[in-house]
Amino acid sequence: MRKSAIHILPLVLAVVLGSCNDWLTEDAPGSNKIEDYFVSSATAIEVVNATYAPLGWEYGTSTTYYSEWFIGDIVSDDALKGGQGATDMGNAYDMENFKTNPDNRLLLGFYNAQWQGIQRCNLALEQVGKMEVGIDAQFTQELKDRLMAEATFMRAYYYFRLVRVFGGMPLIDYVVDSSNKFNFARASQLDTYAFIIKDLEAAVNALPLKSKYAAADMGRATRGTAQAMLLKANLYLAGFQAQQGVDATAAYQAAKHWGDELMATGEYDLVPQYFDNFTLTGENGKESIFEIQYVEDPRSDYGEGEGFSRGTFTLIMQRPRAGFNDSETGWGFDRPTQNLYDEYEAGDPRRDATIMQQTEGEIDETTVYMGNNYYNRKYAQTTDGAGGGWYHLTHHSRGPLNYRLIRYSDALLMYAEACCELGDLAGATTALNRVRARVGLAAFPYTATIQGQSVTFSSSQADLRLAIRHERRVELAMEGHRWFDLCRWGIAKETMDAYIATESDEARAEYGVFQKGKHELMPIPSEDRQLANGTLEQNPGY
User: Fold this and answer.
1) Which domain holds residue 509?
2) N or C: which terminus of the chain carries fewer CB neighbours within 10 A?
């Protein structure tokens, strides 16, 4: 599946959003039933391929860009919005500055894309589940089980993307092909995580190991992908349980179990050179657990809606507006903050692998945003071009670089966190030090200068927790994780207030007031609440 087109059956994938009732129950003359399409292994594979497609959508009918990093990076202390100025992508400006309202088009696009993915998964599960093994020579029980597991995993992943942005979701595990089947009642946040974990547990054993897939199938969900997501989902569940006064021990134990299972496969390891994770040659490599698969194409049907592009906008959006390489400029979004820059310890090579800083001669009025002259290096493709230089795009909407969703270092740090919370300080320290050793940093416990202050970590559980959180920030910076980490740890308010106090006068003047209990979640889009006739409850404060 890697770097290949995903074929979609338009009629099969239609989702009804009208007021009609049971429109599929009566056969029109000369029409086909949905079941009529599912008569070969090729169709089963295609409809499961289609479940992956919305994962890579970044622009469409919401008329704005909506990559997940707009939430994970710029709402946090890791990044400023960037662009041409404060008014460039006003939807992102509102989110960054805690001024978001339910009419935000960026959130609408992101919300709807995940629901498109869930409906595609439900369709695949319903129809592939009905297909008889042996319908052709290729449709074996093994293939059927794998396809069902892929669709189940992807449904869980889309729900995971929704719950950590918007909170509890309606739990729909069937095809919505009639208004009579609409169910907009929201489950709780904890129940939504339980639903996700149940799907992941149902999928994990039927998914092949990464090494068992052919090269053409790289990018599909693997057993390791599901194990890593079970580690992650249980860690999120534990964090929110703890915030709600619920005993989180079982969730931390489950997270540790799935981390043990992942490591026992022997399928993954840290690559020797950190930045190799963000190159074309490093795609789907030893450290990669799950990536969004993108492909470059000189053609474009830009502006025609979701699914029009198989490439990524992230490259052009995050490249510098000018200065570094004037022939390969971009739009200058997702700008690393000074606060993030100061988080790195002396000698940490990850800082310069992550953050590009303009020199005085490269700075002009088009490149500075709120006093900030930093850019994100990880997705700028500064070394993938001819002779190791900047990569040349044949069309700005067709960036070829895959987006890394889960790396093994992420899994190691999540495992360290679960061990730490369970009191297994030795296990946590070992996992943490593996990540630090890759970049030549001292083993925990250690002393370092962080945020301009000398910090000495002791071997206590409290200090180990702080060290793991610090390591997550610098290891995974500008990869869309930071905001969600702050929220699941329950420290978003104090962290953001402290960070804003360190920002430039220009940036501080734009910020609203962070309200604890409100701004950890984004509002449910008003258009979707209208479709639900008022039964889809809004998040507090909106």
Assistant:
1) 1-206+502-542
2) C
The whole model's pTM is what?
0.93
The 10s digit of each residue's pLDDT in 60-91 is 888 899 999 999 999 999 999 999 999 999 99
The CA–CA distances, whole Å, from 285 to 224, 293, 315, 407 equal 13, 13, 20, 10
Beta bridge partners of 404: 291
Instruction: Read off the tokens for 249.
Output: 């021990």
Pick from 376, 401, 426: which residue ends a domain? 401
Crossing angle between the packed helical segments 249-264 and 408-421, to the nearest 10 degrees: 140
Q: Is 517 exposed, middle or buried (0-12, 13-18, 19+ CB in 10 A)?
A: exposed
- Of the residues 352, 369, 401, the one at which a domain ends: 401
CB 136 within 8 A of CB 41: yes
Start-end of H helices in 131-222: 141-166, 189-204
Cα distance between residue 92 and residue 96, in whole Å: 6
173 contacts: CB under 8 Å, gap ≥ 6: 122, 125, 155
- What letter does residue 102 receive in the DSSP assignment? T
Distance, in Å, from the CA atom of 222 to the CA atom of 236, rounded to the nearest integer, reads 21
- What are the tens digits of pLDDT across the range 153-188? 999 999 999 999 999 999 999 998 887 777 678 999
